[in-house]
Design brief:
The chain has 314 residues and is an alpha+beta fold. The chain contains 10 helices and 8 strands.
Amino acid sequence: MKKTDRFDKNADKSKFVNLPVKQVALLGKVSARSQWIKNGVRRFQNHLSSKFILLTLLLLVLVVAAITSINVILSSATLREISQTNNEVYISNNLELIDNMLMDMSRVSLMTFSDPETQRILQEYRNSDYKEQLGYEDYLHSLFSNLISIREEVGGVYIFDTESLIFEYDINRVTRRSEVLLDNQPWLTQIADSAYRRIKGCVLTGAREPDYMFPGSHMSAFKRNYISVAREINSFSPFERIGYIMLLSPVSEIAEILEANNRGAISILVDEEDNIVYEPSGKYLGQPLSNYDERLSIGASEFSHLEISIQDVE
């Protein structure tokens, strides 16, 4: 009875009042084990829940990253397409402007056909006295200075008979007239070649600094170097060659066209023989394009390669 009374005093619940001590201890162990299992299940559920949340977050991150990557790829492709379109527009517009410039120069050369006095001068200049020659030169100076005053692209007019230079008018440079030899002109062999393509009857020569001009070291490379168009001059009756005309234009005129809408790209203009007519530094004017290849490989990754195609201006 004393043990029972002691148990009654220490018991937490009434259901344990009449149970033996061993049964009470066993029931306590079962209860503790059940609680441990419940706690374990709860911890496991919490663990699974945490993993599920982490997996969900990871999937969301992957989905967002994938969507971002796709958007970046699509945006890059769109930008490249826009850039390519802009380059094509830039090339097309500038080629059209250069074509117009070359054709305007060619039209000036036609004056030697349409003006009877110019034809007479070419035929008679060699056999005229000094005074008559001065009169002829004054006439040609007045004629061509008026023509090129409205065409800024024309920097000089040089007229040859079948032997040598008889007239020159250059608004930018002073010429050593006695050194302008017909046989040394680079366009002479081109004119003689009937298969050589022409711009409105003229042949085109790329950038060069004529050696018969006084040094222009104070001038930029774009002012010192010229492109030229040249043609033979024929009489009407009888139809025969009586001379040649060459018109010069400083490369600065082309540079102005190409740089007007340049958006940071490297623009290179070459002639039909792949000689450089224009490049931004001016160091390679008149040189083969191959001399510039290394610069292209280490320079800007995108550039516009504009080529004067005579087919475009015929």
